[in-house]
Design a protein that fits this description.
heterodimer, A: alpha/beta, Elongation Factor Tu (Ef-tu), domain 3, 7-stranded mixed β-sheet, 8 helices, B: alpha+beta, about 20% strand
Chain lengths: ~280, ~350
């Protein structure tokens, strides 16, 4: 019987402590057939199981160009993320997916890409970043603006260091005022302000943003100020999900089921939705 | 119209024949002084004088709680097994037209892209035998949502009570036809046209225009109308309406068991509950009760018809009967119909 709720089993191959309570798992599917054929696109999500605790929804944080494994980054917060956080290297967990739509990266060929993330909003954007880096010559300028509350809260610190060394990528890092350390060499300020100062050009560009709702709100205003239209800006909406396949009835924003028609939308599409966020 | 007749005195024979084959026979019966759809094993248990049972029969197709997988955690890892179901044939006898139509609504949700075999296998094995309504109460409003007390949609067989107290048989689907053929000895030929009891006279509620309600909800601006907070103010969020509703389909998925073994279970859930949409971060998109009530109303008159091309509200009136604060959906439909 085809059981749409049955997850794949995966082994945790590696764990990286990104920030306080934030971890990245590298998962390898147990079934070699799944391992060889599993494919997804940047922006898609999955449901991750800690057996005995339940399932939780996050994006796939690795890039589809990285084969043989997937990664997820999550903050320990509730029952399931708490149980996931207790798992160690070699432990088994579950994965269902990939679900939902994706960032239309193929349509962005030849364009400049501006990626803006805040805090734990970087994982879905990271999938796009690596996807773009791995196909670097398909795109124009790549600008990354990333900020967190404090230096400790920045995720993917190793990768930030790696991106900052890449000559064909412009990386602007920031922490909120008061979150800096004496050694901090990046900007001090909120992401929307830092973005305005970095002033990426809207010409032949697309912008991708993810972060806390309040950050997204002001990032959209900043982008508009810089001349970006709402059609040029993409974001990914997260909502509580249980089934991930359009049946359990809780991720809808008005008549839009985020799990099926989302989670990726342009800012123009978001503005046309019912105010149900 | 078929010329078959089902005599009430033959119901016992029908139940015996079916239950001896392992089938489940569900009919209206008394439980705690209320009429409910429940399995019966003899005809004496069946209640014939009822308007609509307090529950809908959706739980026989979409159980209130249903395991979907089992897991064992040991030193080597996790052993995971999906649950396989092979449902028995189930006969829903004495359904009402408003309930019968819920099958197509639930099927649309459980199949609009991914196919939920738990639902499909159960519904495939169900035979819905509806009895047209000869009585209605103040909460019935099927005609307001364009159904009738004798609509055939969703039923496999539609029965009409005759003045002799028997049933005139109309087969609606192939499934229904095969069922009548299978029990040819029980469904007798009728030599003369029986006289039917009159069908219940349910008048459409004046002032409600379902088309207008649907149009109104399509406009995202109307979502902001202070009307919603006002209309839903008395809702206490108990969720009774959703559990009684034949088309409400929301569910939760939870793990139950010990640290070493357990089951993953699909349980009915309700959009009326505060935790339903609560994020781990503490953010809740529907943080007040009126937003949750508005969502349910939207689901019935916008999502179901527009997204799933099926029926959200069937006019059974259960949500009105079970509501502890008398929040009447038809009053809201009327208010919305009369919005400029």
């Amino acid at each position: 019987m085809n059981n749409i709720y049955l997850p794949y089993l995966a082994t945790i191959e590696d764990i990286c402590e990104e920030a306080p309570d934030v971890k990245t798992f590298r998962l390898v599917f147990k079934d070699p057939k799944v391992r060889d054929t599993f494919d997804f696109k940047a922006g898609q999500f999955g449901l991750y199981s800690a057996f005995g605790a339940g399932e939780s929804t996050f994006c796939i944080a690795s890039s589809p160009t990285q084969k043989g494994y997937i990664q997820c980054t999550f903050r320990k917060g509730g029952r399931v993320t708490g149980a996931l956080s207790d798992l160690g290297i070699g432990d088994t967990m579950g994965f269902r997916g990939p679900y939902g739509n994706w960032f239309p990266i193929d349509e962005w060929k030849g364009k400049n890409i501006v990626l803006i993330a805040g805090g734990i909003g970087l994982p879905p954007v990271r999938s796009v970043i690596w996807n773009c880096i791995d196909r670097r010559k398909d795109f124009g300028d790549i600008t990354i603006v990333y900020g967190a509350k404090t230096v400790a809260d920045l995720v993917y610190k190793n990768e930030l260091a790696e991106w900052s060394k890449m000559s064909d990528i412009k990386l602007v890092q920031a922490v909120d005022p008061g979150g800096e350390t004496p050694e901090w060499k990046g900007k001090v300020g909120f992401v929307p302000t830092v973005l305005e100062q970095a002033a990426p050009s809207p010409n032949n560009s697309v912008a991708v943003t993810c972060g806390p709702p309040i950050m997204i709100k002001f990032v959209l205003q900043a982008l508009n100020k810089l001349g970006f239209s709402d059609e040029q800006v993409y974001t990914t909406l997260e909502n509580k999900m249980k089934c991930g396949v359009g049946k359990c009835g809780r991720c809808n924003v008005g008549d839009i089921y985020i799990c099926k028609e989302g989670p990726v939308y342009t800012a123009a599409e978001v503005k046309r939705m019912y105010n149900d966020f | 119209m078929s010329n078959k007749l089902l005599k009430k005195e033959n119901l016992g024979k029908l139940i015996d024949a079916l239950t001896s084959e392992g089938s489940i026979f569900v009919a209206p019966k008394m439980d705690a002084q209320q009429v409910v759809y429940a399995p019966v094993i003899n005809a004496e248990e069946i209640v014939f004088d009822y308007i609509v049972p307090v529950n809908s029969f959706k739980k026989f197709l979409f159980p209130q709680t249903e395991p979907i997988a089992e897991f064992n955690i040991n030193k080597e890892g996790v052993v995971l097994k999906g649950i396989e179901i092979e449902p028995k044939e189930i006969i829903i006898f004495g359904s009402r037209p408003c309930d019968a139509i819920c099958c197509s609504s639930l099927r649309s949700v459980f199949n609009w892209d991914f196919k939920d075999e738990f639902y499909n296998r159960r519904e495939d094995k169900a035979i819905v035998i509806t009895v047209a309504c000869t009585k209605a109460d103040d909460s019935c409003f099927c005609t307001t949502v364009n159904l009738t007390p004798d609509s055939p949609n969703g039923s496999d067989i539609l029965l009409r009570e005759t003045t002799d107290g028997d049933y005139a048989v109309e087969t609606i689907t192939d499934k229904g036809k095969k069922f009548v053929e299978r029990f040819a000895n029980i469904f007798s030929l009728n030599s003369q046209v029986p006289s039917h009891k009159p069908i219940a006279d349910v008048k459409p509620i004046a002032g409600i225009d379902v088309k207008k309600v649907k149009e109104y909800l399509k406009d995202t601006q109307h979502y902001e109308n202070p009307l919603w907070a006002e209309l839903a103010r008395k809702c206490i969020g108990c969720g009774a309406c959703t559990f009684a509703c034949p088309t409400c389909h929301c569910f939760d998925i939870v793990d139950e068991g010990s640290a070493y073994q357990g089951k993953r279970i699909k349980n009915w859930d309700a959009c009326q509950f505060e935790f339903f949409t609560l994020h781990t971060s503490g953010h809740n998109p529907r943080d007040t009760q009126y937003k949750r009530w508005r969502n349910r109303f939207m689901c019935k008159f916008n999502f179901y018809p527009n997204k799933f091309s099926s029926r959200g509200c069937v006019g059974c009136g259960r949500c009105i009967r079970v509501c502890p604060v008398r929040l009447d959906i038809t009053e809201v439909m009327e208010k919305v119909s009369n919005q400029p």
